[in-house]
Structure formats: C-alpha cells, structure tokens
Amino acid sequence: MAQTLLAMAKDFVMAQIEAHRLSSDDMHTALQQTYASLHALKTQEDAHGSVAVATPETPRAPVNWRKSITKHRATCLECGTTLKQLSVRHLKEHSLDGRSYRIKYGIPRVQSLAAKAITLRRKEVVQRSRPWEKAPTFVKAQEEKKREQAQVAQRKKMARAKASGNNGR
C-alpha cells in the first residue's frame, strides 16, 4: 500500500509542477515531505494492517502579491512580517532566495522586493551620484572622445589657415 501511495504522491507533485502551483525548485522539498509522511503512516500501522490516514492540509488561496508591496512597507508572504525590504537574510529564514520567492508567489523578475519609497530613494541616489561616470570604461571613452574632438578642431584650424593663405595671394 505504501508503494501505491508513493506513486500517487509522485504523480500529484508532478501535476502541481505542470499546473505551475509548485516550482521545480520546491519539488525536492515536497517529495521529502511525502516520504516523511509515508514513513510516519507506515509506523502507525496497527497489527491488523490498517493505516491511520491524515487529511492533507488545504492549499492556501492565491495571494495577490501586489498588495504586499506598498509605498512604505513590503510584507513577507511567507510569514506576514512587514519590513522596508525583503532582504536575502530574511528570505533565507524561509529557505528561499529572491528568485524562488518570486516564482513561488508569481512575482515578476523585475519587481523590487522593497517598499516603493525605498526603491525611489535608491533610484534618486544613483541618479545623483552617477556611478557609471566613474567606471573605467566610461572614463576611457570620454578621454578618446576629447582626443577625437581635439584632432577635428586641429584639422579645421589647419584647413582655415591653408584657405586663408591661398586667399592672401
């Protein structure tokens, strides 16, 4: 009977993945939980071979992630904690990273996991500091641009001098 339940559990997990209710990253965890449940059921068998069947946890209603990120707060959909941002450290407490959290709750890859005010503040700081202008490739390109402009100006100056020398005759 345990083998039948195991086969059914595997089919259930695969169906969850295909229906996009379970990410492939979470598949391993789901299967481990299934194996643990089956082991617990097997140990609960009584002498007559009957098994105590536990009813599975009802799946949660789909969560609207848009409501979890407001102007001043970001709410963790795992534990309900409100923070300014869902940091790597906080997500690690739930055995998640940013990518798996986004997949689990259907959040787009480009959506920040921080409050909107924090995101805007950081954007302003970056615009003021303009870090790309300090990058070595940018500095080198600017120097080359100045050299090219100086060469063009030199050629124009020489062309004008040559033209005025020809006009003076």
Which characteristics define this entry?
169 residues, mainly alpha, Arc Repressor Mutant, subunit A, two-stranded antiparallel sheet, 6 helices, 2 strands, elongated
Descriptive report:
This protein has 169 residues and is mainly alpha-helical. It has two domains: 1-55, no CATH class; 63-155, ROS/MUCR transcriptional regulator protein (Arc Repressor Mutant, subunit A), CATH 1.10.10. Helix content is 58%, strand content 2%. A two-stranded antiparallel sheet has the order 1-2. Strand 1 and strand 2 form a beta hairpin. Helix 1 packs antiparallel against helix 2 (24-44). 3% of the residues are buried.
How would you sum up this structure in a few lines?
The chain is mainly alpha-helical. The chain has helices at residues 2-18, 24-44, 88-93, 98-105, 116-129, 136-167, and strands at 74-75, 82-83.
What structural class do the secondary elements suggest? mainly alpha
Identify the strand order in the major beta sheet. Answer: 1-2
Query: For the report, how would you describe the main beta sheet?
Result: 2 strands, antiparallel
Low-confidence stretches are: none
Under the CATH scheme, which architecture of the largest domain would be assigned? Orthogonal Bundle
- The shape, in one word, is elongated
What portion of residues belong to β-strands? under 5%
Termini gap: 112 Å
Total number of domains = 2
Record field, number of beta strands: 2
Q: Tell me the series of helices and strands, N- to C-terminal.
A: HHEEHHHH
Topology:
Layout (H helix, E strand, L loop, with lengths): L1 H17 L5 H21 L29 E2 L6 E2 L4 H6 L4 H8 L10 H14 L6 H32 L2
Antiparallel strand pairs: 1-2
